[in-house]
Amino acid sequence: MAHPTTLRPDLKHIAEQIRPNSRVLDLGCADGELLAWLQANKQVRGIGVDVDVNSIVTCVEKGLNVIQADMESGLQHFEDGSFDYVVLSLTIQSMHNVELILQEMLRVGRCGIVTFPNFGFWENRWQILLGRMPVSETIPYDWYNTPNIHFCTVHDFGKLLHKLGMQVNGQIVLHQGEPVEFLPNLLGSLALVRFSQAAKI
C-alpha cells in the first residue's frame, strides 16, 4: 500500500489536531486521503464512512477500513465512546439534519472536528451585495447545481454548538490553506472547529 506523504492543506490542519495512536472515525471520508495519512504517520486506528461507491472502492484499494452508510440517519453502526476523534470535513453544509450528526459525533467520540466553508468570508458577502449567490474556492458551485443546503458563518456554528450543550475546544480559520488570525470571520474562507461536550457545572 502506498502511503501519502503530503495532505491537502485543510486536511493537514485536521491531522495536526489528532494525537498519535488514537481512534479516528472519518465521516464522508471520500478517497481516504486523511485516514491513509494518519495511519501511516500517526499510527491511528481509523474507520471511514462514505455513501459513494467509488469512494468506498478507492479506500478499500488503499487498505483502509471503510463502510458504506448514509450519515443522515445517524451513526447506529457505532457504539457510544468508540472513538477519540470523529471528523466531518467539508460535508456538514450538505447534510439535512445538522443537529443530529453533531450529537451523534459526540455520542460515538470524545472530540469532534468539523470543517466547513465560512459564509461570512468577505468575498461571499461582496457577491451577495452585488446580487449574486457566492461562488468561490470553498463554495465552487452555482446556485442551481450545488449540493450545499446549509451555509453558516464561524459565529453561527459556535452558536449552534452552544445550543446543543457543546463547547469549542479549538478553532482555526483558513484562507488558501493558511491560518487567518485577524478578523477571521471576515477574512477566512474555511473554518476548522474542534469541539466536545460542554463541562457540566
Automatic annotation (TrEMBL):
Signal peptide: none
InterPro entries referenced in this protein's UniProt entry, alphabetically: Methionine_synth_MetW, SAM-dependent_MTases_sf
Domain of life: Bacteria
Family matches, as Pfam families: MetW
The protein, known as: Methionine biosynthesis protein MetW
PANTHER family from the UniProt entry: TRANS-ACONITATE 2-METHYLTRANSFERASE, TRANS-ACONITATE 2-METHYLTRANSFERASE-RELATED
The species this protein was found in: Deefgea tanakiae
